[in-house]
Amino acid sequence: MSSGSKREREQRRKLQHFLSDLALLGSLQGFKYFQPWLRGKEELLLTVVNEDLGWRSPGFVVSRASSSSSSSSSCNSSDVSPSSSSPSLVSRGSSPLPGEPPGPRDPPRAHTKTQPQPVREPSSEEHLLPASPSEREIAVPSHGLHFVPQKQEVNCTLFLLAGYVKYGRPYAWIRSNHERLVNIGGTDSMVKDTPMKLKSIADWQTRGIRVWDVISELVCLCTVPSPSNPFALDMRYIKSLPLPDRFLVTGALLNFLDMYVVYGNRDELHYDKVVEEVKPLRRLHVQSLLELQRHRERSGAAGSPPAQDSSSEE
Question: β-pairing, 171-174 with 156-162?
Fold first, then answer.
């Protein structure tokens, strides 16, 4: 077998592995800074919070998105780790929802320097279009997200992460709020639909990149301030779920985070924080299991017919 055929087989195997990770991630809910949902076997839509107000007000729900205009994190993926906690900030105005008036713009900041934008791919890859153009996307899914209680409070950016077989590798596209992250130089759809230049995507050919590497880089790029743990959980939301849902959600999250603990890069700054996040999640999962078992035992006892006195039958 030629070396070229071996490389093609290896690339197909890696892509299928990536798509399996994508399907697993798309079934999860309860993250603090992002919400994924699956769209077909090759696509994952990812809504990421623009501005985390929890760091500003201790009484504010951390996972809620800001309703005011926000600043964006322009982590330069070519020379800054996705887990960097001190990205430069570029003042941008957020895009309103359809039918809403434009929000206020941030005042100019003389002391802020705009960093080079690492989003555009080289011109040789500008023809790599997603399955649907960005004009057809919405920033918020129709079924809503747990961290967006009202549309008026939405301030998030939508990304498309896909592993199309025809391209042979994963790519990521910005689907909304393009102006927050990159100077698109107009409204040309070909420019808007150019794949992002992410370090995790660039390293996919040579390193064992998994879906969590791409997610952490996107959260670092988008959320301000950059989270110390991009996979932090919204425990308040998870605990509010009905008991059967809470048991299933915590189990699914445990499965994903356990995979990260085993196969993730231990040199990442947020690795230890993810390990710590698993401990209370596991306790909550076990507690939910025990509560569910007790509930079923009580329901079974209440529904069973009364026991007959055998002595009266003799």
Answer: antiparallel
Residue whose entry in the numeric block shows the structure tokens 């390990």: 275
pTM: 0.70
Residues 282, 67: Cα–Cα separation, whole Å: 33
- Residue 103, number of CB atoms within 10 A of its CB: 17
* Cβ atoms of residues 82 and 209 within 8 Å: no
Report which of 63, 125, 68, 119 is spatially closest to residue 92, judged by C-alpha positions: 68
- CA quadruple 56, 58, 63, 65: dihedral sign: negative
Running DSSP on this structure, what letter comes out for residue 32? S
Is the bond into 225 cis (omega within 30 degrees of 0)? Answer: yes
Q: Give residue-wise pLDDT tens across range 40-59.
A: 899 999 999 998 876 543 33
Tokens 């918020």 sit at which residue?
140
Rounded to whole angstroms, what are the CA distances from 284 to 157, 219, 233?
30, 26, 12
Overall residue count recorded for the chain in this entry: 314
Q: Is 185 left (phi over 0), alpha (psi -120 to 50) or beta?
A: left
For 150-159, b/e burial (b = at least 16 CB within 10 A) is eeeebbbbbb
Helix (H, G, I), strand (E, B) or coil at 18: helix
Rounded average pLDDT over 92-113: 37
- Specify the 3-state DSSP secondary structure of 6: helix
Compute, in degrees rounded to 10, the torsion defined by CA atoms 291, 149, 193, 183. Answer: -130
pLDDT digits (tens, 9 = 90+) for 151-172: 434 688 999 999 999 999 999 9
